[in-house]
Design a protein that fits this description.
2 domains, elongated, three-stranded antiparallel sheet, binds zinc ion, mainly beta, 1 helix, 39% strand
């Protein structure tokens, strides 16, 4: 397939390195371009006062035409690219899956298949860090 390992984190809105049993995975999602004007990449709305992206915003917006898409709807149409080492066959591979959580062995995960052995693999959602007291 030949995925391009991202260099500039500004082009991404998801990036994760995760252990998968005896294997591992690196996954990322590029910001897609606006489907309305195709002039800019979709991103989180920016706070006009601080100039910083509103991380907790419930929607994505195009900085050119202000086209807005609800977060859930938007993310589920994005493609996640994955470079991994399979915990089953120990081979390195690449995969593309939807940026959408599915049930996988009882937990929510981004699910894809090993291109070598065909086994299903899951990148689980990040565990919440325990609260500091
Ligand atoms: Zn646009
Ligand atoms: Zn495999």
């Amino acid at each position: 397939m030949g995925l391009t390992i991202p260099e500039d984190m500004d082009d991404l809105f998801y990036f994760s390195r995760r252990a998968m049993g005896e294997g591992k995975a690196m996954a990322w999602v590029y910001r897609p371009e606006c489907l309305e004007c195709h002039k800019a990449k979709m991103g989180k709305p920016v706070n006009e006062k601080t100039g910083k992206a509103k991380i907790r915003a419930k929607e994505y917006v195009c900085p050119e035409c202000q086209h807005t898409v609800p977060k859930e709807e938007f993310e589920e149409t994005c493609q996640m690219e994955i470079a991994y080492t399979c915990p089953h066959c120990k081979k390195e591979g690449e995969a593309i899956t939807l940026y959408k959580l599915k049930s996988f062995e009882g937990v929510k995960a981004y699910v894809f298949e090993c291109e070598h052995c065909g086994k299903k693999l899951g990148i689980t959602k990040k565990m919440k860090a325990p609260k500091k007291k």
